[in-house]
Amino acid sequence: MAVSRRSFVTSVAAGSALAAVSASEIVSAFTSAASAASPPGDVVGKISVGYQGWFSCPGDGAPIGGWWHWSRDRFQPPSPSNTTIVSWPDMREYTHGYTTAYPNLGNGQPAQLFSSYDQQTVDTHFRWMREHGCDTAALQRFNPFGDEGPTRDAMALKVRDAAERFGRKFYIMYDVTSWTSMRSELKVDWTTKMSAHTASPAYARQSGKPVVCVWGFGFNDPGRPFAPAPCLEVVNWFKAQGCYVIGGVPTYWRQGINDSRPGFLDVYHAFDMISPWMVGRTGTLDGLDWFYANVNVPDQADCDAHGIDYQPCVMPGDLSTGARAHGDFYWRHFYNMVRLGCQGIYISMFDEYNEGNQIAKTAETAATVPAGTGIRPLDEDGTFCSADYYLRITADGGRMLKGQLALTPVRPTPPVVAGGPGPQPGVNLAAGKPATASSQNSGFAPANAVDGNAGSYWESANNAFPQWIQVDLGAALSVGRVVLKLPPAAAWATRTQTLSVQGSANGSAFTTLVASGGRTFNPATGNAVTLTFPSASVRYVRVHITANTGWPAGQLSELEAYAS
């Protein structure tokens, strides 16, 4: 089974922003665009997106069987302890989902995932590409001579069909990771199987030639141990077949240091287009600017000098580490590459939920990720973002690349179409977030109050007031409403709890948001109490309880927090 590139590629720290490039090179990059070695085609002047298409589920008909790429053990359903993913897809537009062993979503619905083997999934993805200006899909193809080969072959047909019907282009992108016999088997696979797809009107062409990419030559890691000579032979063989050949190369390809083996410069210069890898290299805006000055500017100059097209990798950021900055990271990367004058852009990736750098539609809030798992939704930093947000940024970035939108460092794409950034009133900011309490009785843990299940509840130690329960929203957010609930079952008779609501930015110094008072929970009205107050910027929301007429303990089944 192919593995994530992250397992081989480690981060390379950025140094001084002016360490490796002269001032004249920087000035030149600001004042003139690079001249393309090739005219506009299906990759030059276009937005290409890496497309894995590698998810399958039991019952979808895929030859490989099991939960391919959803689970570490693909013969067991994905769960928090058996998973390969760090992000969760927005499932609303898939006609079929497959139920996992994850906990229910924050909204109580079963945790389901899609299968790439369903044609409707591929169709949905290519429709999104059409709607958001993704011109060309680079279909990833790992060693097809193992057990995944038949499934990869079928996926190529599904992608071809979708590309033809939705007016997109596609090309084969070979990843040589752990492919020890790639020198001969690449040629066999291309001549006997993949080259047939070039007959499709949807197959990408550049300068009249079918496009093929080989990703992984020269990387300094055990998964790609190849020497320069066989790599150069493969590149020249594809060119002899009449192909336009892209090289997915290390970040430091030009210098032969860090992630690049030395002695590969002749291999790199043999490619028609160079596309250096960037995932895992930085997660900050300053880091992107460092790479622009020290890596991308001299990369572009080297490509210009050798008649090679330059297709830098642009990434939305790893959602699981909080790198996205609600779209600012992605836009800065777009801006830097467009002002550089690159010949095309490669987005990493379209559907890479494994590494958290997908642009495909993603769960918006904790209500649509499995409760209690810590999987970050798009609003992880407190800014509500629609599921299609990173697709919409891609569309605007593509327009900027093509000169249809003026070059600007200011992100023009709002997180939601109908409004600006900020938590939305209908989003429960506490759903699935970490909860703690002054005490708990037996198994009635504080996490029960943020799991979206009104039937489970937190209960404090008995006969020991005062007590409190609090939720960590993960960041300082504007909160103006709290909803408290008890289980709706008839057995929970009317009771009054004397409580206050407090807020804190740091978890230690709390201010009162709602003064202490008796709050009546009545089954006739859903056993719920809503408390509103002037908006306050808080990270921690605490409910402080001093009395309960129904039971000698603090009790809550749900602690919900909302913007005003």
Automatic annotation (TrEMBL):
Q: Which InterPro entries match?
A: BG_Antigen-Binding_Lectin, FA58C, Galactose-bd-like_sf, TAT_signal
Q: Which Pfam families match?
A: F5_F8_type_C
Question: Where's the F5/8 type C domain?
Answer: 422-564
User: Signal sequence span per UniProt?
Assistant: 1-19
Q: Which residues form a coiled coil?
A: none
> SUPFAM superfamilies of this UniProt entry?
Galactose-binding domain-like
Classification via PROSITE patterns: FA58C_3, TAT
Keywords for this entry?
Signal
The protein's name is Discoidin domain-containing protein
Q: Which organism is it from?
A: Phytohabitans kaempferiae
